[in-house]
């Protein structure tokens, strides 16, 4: 039996499936690619796709961290306004939302203003005419919110607008307010407050208020800003309270001395 002569110039045959794939890829390319380049291109696209998918799969920090929907010791609030008065330039409460410290909604209601709505301000408020057709009356919502926030820490952004100015018309103990628009580390270099969307992007890495505002999202952002800075925030509040108490005691000590000085001066004048 003669030995078979091997031709060194003969190349190994490609797998038929691989050869078909290479042919298809070459049809869409003006410049022929080598097997290594083709494989790198295919794997590269697969890698890019997996990276994109991993970016989208990153959890949103504003998502609730628990399924607990109970009323907690701290509550965040956000309100949306509509326009009333003939020109629609006067604000009235159109929706109010409360979330607990976990970010779960404990109260969310549309509100029917006492005055006729002229401007729903949908581009910002997200409120539409159909939302207010079955909305609750202002007094009912006001009473319920007052019950929920009583004796609790109230978190929010520019809370004075939500509590007083043409909104809920409620008062809350100043020592129990945690306003992200007034917390010193959140202020700009000039000492002015930043918008909530800017705080969310800077400190939470989350974009909010892109278009119509969502009061649930805004309340969650305010609560998360508070929770992540709670230790320092509460310490600064206690230090400020101690300082105010010391100043108060100093004033109380000065008053008796002033009264004693005045009375002695009066006696001296009488003797003269």
What can be said about the biggest beta sheet?
6 strands, mixed
Report how far the terminal alpha carbons are from each other.
152 Å
SS summary, helix count: 9
Strand line-up in the sheet with most strands: 4-3-2-1-5-6
- The poorly predicted ranges are 45-55
Secondary-structure-derived class? alpha/beta
Strand and helix order: HHEEEHHEHEHEHHH
The level of helicity is 40-55%
CA gyration radius, whole angstroms: 33 Å
Q: Quick one: how many beta strands?
A: 6
Which geometry do the CA atoms define?
extended
Task: Please tell me the overall pLDDT.
Answer: 84
Estimate what percentage of residues fall within beta strands: 5-15%
Q: What does the model show?
A:
Helix 7 (196-204) crosses helix 8 (215-228). This protein is an alpha/beta fold and 272 residues long. The N and C termini lie far apart (152 Å). It has helices at residues 16-27, 35-56, 122-125, 129-133, 138-149, 159-163, 196-204, 215-228, 230-271; strands at 74-84, 90-99, 105-112, 136-137, 153-156, 177-179.
Please give a quick description of this structure.
Helices cover 46% and strands 14% of the residues. It is α/β, with parallel strands linked by helices and 272 residues long.
Would you spell out the secondary-structure blueprint of this structure?
Blueprint: H1 16-27, H2 35-56, E1 74-84, E2 90-99, E3 105-112, H3 122-125, H4 129-133, E4 136-137, H5 138-149, E5 153-156, H6 159-163, E6 177-179, H7 196-204, H8 215-228, H9 230-271
Parallel strand pairs: 1-5, 3-4, 5-6
Antiparallel strand pairs: 1-2, 2-3
